[in-house]
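Below is how a single chain appears once it has passed through the pipeline. First comes the sequence as given, then the structure the pipeline wrote out for it. We keep one example in the README because the format questions we get most often are answered faster by looking than by reading.
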Amino acid sequence: MTTGSLGTVDFERWRRKYELIKQAARAHSRTMEEWAAIDETRATRCAEVRALVDRFQADGSLADFRTGVDAWSRTEGAFHAFRGYGLMWLNQLAKHDGDHAPAIAEALRAGVQTPESVPEAIDKLERVESAMAPIRASGQPAAGRKAFVLSLFWSTDPSDDTWPCLWPSAADGLRRLGWTRSWDNDEIYPIFREVSLALEPADPHFVERCLWFLEKRQGFVGLAPGLRETCVEASDLLVAHSRNGAYLDEDQESRAKDLASQLTGEMKLTVSAMETGMRDATGLELTTALPQLKTSFDASKPYRADTYGNWSTPGGMDAPSLRLWATRSGVAFGVHAGFMTQETATNLAREIENHLAPQQSFFHLQRHDSGDRLARRSSTYESGEIFVGWWWDDDAALGDPTLGTDLVEKAAQLGPVIELCSAAQRRATSTEGTSAGIVTSTVDTGWLAGRAQTFRKQRPYPTDKDAIHQERRSEFAQAMTAEALGDLDFALFRKMYNGNGYGAPGPQARLNRSFNEIAAAELDKFCEELREFLWGDEPVEQRLTRALDREILNVKGLGESVLMKMLAVVHPDRFLPIFPLNGDMGKEAVLERLELAIPPAGHAAARQIQANDRIRELLEPLFPGDAWAQGQFAYWLMREAESPAVEEDLVAGLADRLLVPGVFLDEVRDLLEERKQIIFYGPPGTGKTYIARELAAALQPDPLRRRTVQFHPSTSYEDFFEGFRPRLDEAGAMTYELRKGPLALLVDKAESDPTTPHVLLIDEINRANLPRVLGELLFLLEYRKEFVYTTYRPEEPFQLPDNLLIIGTMNTADRSIAMVDSALRRRFHFIPFMPHDGPLSGVLHKYLDKHDGPTWVAGLVNAVNERLRVELKGPHLQIGHSHFMRTDLDAAVLQRIWTYGVYPMIEDQLYGREGLLETFTWSSVLKDYGPGSAAAAETSAEAEALAIDDQAH
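Resulting structure:
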C-alpha cells in the first residue's frame, strides 16, 4: 500500500474499528487522566522545542541542538518518552565528528523543518538517510527511527497541525492491525498521516494516542465490525484463484495479501489481549498461535480467506486448543481437539456428545477452495477434525466490546471437553509400537514410536531448557520478520548465528569479521536480500540455491549451517533445527539412522531440503508441530546408537586388580551416584589418580564419554569451561572465537545421551583457584536441576546434567584440605587415601606379595610413615605406596627410589632439622626397618589380618 492508495472500502472498515478503540480509550479513566495531564504541558513543551529548532536553523550547530533537545526531553510532560528511543538516535548522529559530520548536520537542519507536502516529507527522510548511511555500523544509527524523530519535530509546529508524530507504538499498531504490510517506517509515515487525517481531521494526533492505547493498555476492544466483509472479499478472490489456478494479475494477488494481513492482524490482537483471561478461566498453561497467511507453504497456493486464533495447551499440533474462528458466514468459538486418527476422533466425539453445553455444536471443516471453512452441524459428529463450540451468524459477534468477557466465560465451561481431548491424546500415545495416534504422514513410524516414548521419559522431554530454546527461537524470529528486517536488530541477529539458542551452527569467526567490516550500504542490501531469502515468493529451494551460490547474501563466512538455522528459526513448521547436511550429526547421518534414503547427488540446496523434508515427514506424527522435539529426538537416537552396550558390572571387577576391598569401591560408587561429584584426597603417591582413572573407565568404557583434565595455578574459567580463543581465519589474520572447554563439551555429550554416564576426571583439583575456575558453575554442583546464565553466553541457559559424574583428586602435601573453600567442600564427597588407614593400608604388601617382591619394603614404608605422622603432626605428608609398586625392586633400585624420590620430600618438610633428617636416609631406615627388623615382622602379621578381612567382604 502506498500514499494516496487508501481505498474507500478499507477506510470504512478501519474507521469502524477505530471507533471501537476510541470508545474504549475514552472509557478508560486512568488513560484519560494521563492524557489530560500531558495536554496541560503540551503547548509549553512545543514552544520550547520550536525555539530549539529555530536556533538550529540560525546557527547550524548540531551539538548545541542535541544538548538542548537532551535537556528538553528530560522535562516532564508531553514528550518525556522521546529521551529513550529518539534521543539515542540523535545522540548517535551528533557525536560523529568525522568527515561526514557537516553533511549530517545540514540534513538534520533541513529535516526538522516542517514540510509543506508529502513529497517534501519523503525528500527530507531520504536526505537524512543519505547523510547517515556512510557512518552506520552494525545497524546503528537505526534507519527506522528517523521517521519518528523528524515527525516529532514536525508535530510541534503550531502553524501546521497536519503532521502527527509516528511514535513507535503507532508504527507497530498499524502493522499489528494489518493496515500496512510495510517494514519501512519511511513508507509507513505517509500512510499513517493519511489515515490520521481521515479518521480525526480536527486532531490527527489523537489517532496515535489510540494506537498506543490499543498496543499498551487494552488490546481487545471488540472484533472489527468489518471483519466478515473482509472475509467475504478475500473468499471471492480465493475461489477465483482456485478456479483459474492463479490470480489474474499482480494487483489481485497484492489485494489478497492485504486482506489476509488484515484478518491475521485482527486475530493476533485478539488472542494476545485475551491470553491471560483464557489462562485464568481454564487454569491451563496456554500459548497463542495463528495460521500462516497462505493456505499452504506452497508458493502457488492462494492467501487465506478466514482467520483463527488458538490458545493452545502444551503438546504441539496434536494438543487440544481453544480457538476463535472467523469466516465469511460468521464467528465460532470452541475447542479444536488437535490432530488424530479418524478412529480416535470418532471415539472421542462420542464422549464429547455427552458433555455438550446448551447451544454448542460440532462444526465440519471444509476445504479452502469452498470459500467458507466452517459448516455448522448439529450435536452429532460426522468426520474429520473435531471442532466443537458456539456459533454467531453473520455480524452478530462483531463490534461488541463485551464479547471478550463472554468468550472467557465460555472458555471456563469448556474444561471437561478439553480434558476429554487430552485424555484421548494420552491414550493414543500410550501404546508403544504405534504411531502415537497421529496420522499426518504416510510413512511408517511404528518402529520409532517406542523410542519416542523412551525419549520423552528418559531424556526427558520437554524440560525447562527446551522451553527456553523455544523462547529464543521466537525472539530470533521476531527480529527476522519481513517488517523487522527493515530495521534489523543486529545485536540480536548476531546472537542468533553465534549462539546455541535453538541449536548451534558452529563457530562463525569469519562471518563476524565480515559484518564488522561491512559498509552501511552493503548492510542495507544484505537486509533486503535476507528478506527476499526468508520471505520471498520463489520456492525456497531456489532461494537457498541463490544464497549458496552467492547470487544473494554474498557475505564471506555466511555458510550452509547459518542459512539453515535462519530458515529453521522463521519457518519452524517446515525446517528442523538440524543445520549441516554432512558430518557425524548432519542430516545425512540422521537419515541413515532413521533408515531413510539419502537424497541423490546434486546441488546442496536441493539435497538439504529433500533431507529435511524426509526427516520431517517421518518424525512429524511422533512430535506434531514441534520441530525442536524432532531435532532433539533425532540427535538422541544418534547418541543412543553410539552408546556401547555394557552388560557386566566393570566396577565389581576392579577390586582384585586395584588390590582394594570390593566394599570400598561399592561405597565410592554409591557416593558418586548420590552427590554426582567426589574428591580423592591424600598424600602424593597413594594411587588417587590411578584409581580415579580406572574407576572412570569402569563406569564409562567409551573414551569419548569420559575426559581427563589437570588443573594448575594458571587454569582459568576459559580453559575449563568456555572462553574466547585466538585462531587464524581463512586470510591468515588473527581473530577470536568463542570456544568450549572440556566441561562444556562433555556436558553437550551428556545432555544428548541422558541415560549413559559421562565421567569428568579433574586431576590436582586444588592446584587451581577454584572460585575463579568454576565461577557460576559452583552453584550448579549443588543444584543440578537448576539453570544458570554463563559469563560468555548470558542469553543461554546452562545446566549440569545428572548423568555427568565428576571425580577430582587432591594432593594434600601441596595444600591442606582445611584450606579448601567450605562451599566447595559441601558440594563434594571427600574420600581419604591414606597409606596407614582404611582400604589402602595394605596395598603395598599385597602388591609385593602378588608379584613375588620384597614384602619387607611395605613394613619399612609403614614404619617411616608412622614416624612422619608424629614429626609432622598429621597424615598428609606420608610416603605413598606407588613409589615401590614395581616388579624390578632390588637393592640398587630401592636405594635410587628412596634417595631421589622419597628423601627429597622428607628433606623439604624437615628442613633445618639436620639431626632428625639423618635418621631418614636410606642407610638409616634400612638398618632400622629392613629385613630381620621387628617392623618387618609386624607388617607380615598385619598383612595376614588384612587378607582375612578382605575375604570376609
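The chain has five domains: 8-216, 227-430, 455-640, 654-832, 838-952.

See the next section for the split statistics.
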